[in-house]
Amino acid sequence: MPHKVISIATSKGGAGKTTLCISLASAFAEQGGRIALVDTDPQGSLTSWAEKADLPESIAVFSESTDENRVIDLIEAASQTYHLTIVDVQGTANTLAHTAMAFSDLVIIPMKASEFDARAAFDTLTAVRAVSRSRRSEIDFMPVLNCLSPAIASRTAQAIREGFEEAGIAVQTGLSEREAFRCISAYGGSLFQLSDSQAPGLTKAKAEALDFAGLVADRLGISQTQAA
Ligand SMILES: Nc1ncnc2c1ncn2[C@@H]1O[C@H](COP(=O)(O)OP(=O)(O)OP(=O)(O)O)[C@@H](O)[C@H]1O
Ligand SMILES: [Mg+2]
Fold it and tell me: How far is the CA of 18 from the centre of ligand 1 (A)?
């Protein structure tokens, strides 16, 4: 199985990048995959999550928020041991972000259902296209509407989807807004290590994370269990 690299990036803060990184890693690890998470965000959210609880042996977290050569080293080293590397990327207008994108097979661009998030997502995919041009090969990207209410259809989300479609870009659906996803950062550990008493709605959250991992695996051209 070839090693694949995913970056999760947007220039907008709080769109759910770190939570998506953890949920995807949790879902792939649950299927038997070995996952390296690379924290390039100076805030260090992934790193502090990793310190909160013992992680499954199949998930490892590395951090480097200043030196892009070290990020490349980490990705290359991870390719020897892990099936998948997921990079948490802060912002898009910095060298580290461009480096992470340049080494990625897929850039996931999360946005909440807000016009501000949608603009940031569009700026981010423009940045991915620019990096594709400079490396002279296409980097796949996937804008994702994230943190939607599971109960109420959002008109803003629909308008955002249509706006992207007019530009010929399909928008996927990420994780719904669920307390269980919020609990990941509170308790640490994989989504699949949480208990029902810690995380309300955990069953639905786990199913959603697995579905999203399936979508990502399809996009990468691997079957979800092949990531194992
Ligand atoms: N699917 C979700 N359901 C409920 N809460 C969520 C979900 N995804 C993220 N959150 C919450 O939203 C906040 C922002 O999420 P997160 O830290 O993952 O975003 P981020 O894009 O990494 O932010 P930053 O730009 O600060 O790095 C956190 O409090 C997180 O718990
Ligand atoms: Mg973050």
Answer: 6
With vertex at residue 204, the alpha carbon angle to CA 200 and CA 207, rounded to the nearest 5 degrees, is 140
pLDDT, position 67: 96
Q: How many CA atoms lie within 13 A of 26 on its CB side?
A: 29
Tell me which residue has its CA closest to atom 14 in ligand 1.
14
Architecture of domain 4-214: 3-Layer(aba) Sandwich (3.40)
**pLDDT tens readout for residues 81-111:** 999 999 999 988 889 999 999 999 999 999 9
Q: Is 16 in the pocket of ligand 1 (CB under 6 A)?
A: yes
Return residues with CB closer than 5 A to ligand 2 (ion).
17-18, 45
Amino acid at 161: R
Would you call 154 exposed, middle or buried from its count of C-beta atoms within 10 A (0-12, 13-18, 19+)? middle
Q: Domain segments of the chain: what residues? A: 4-214
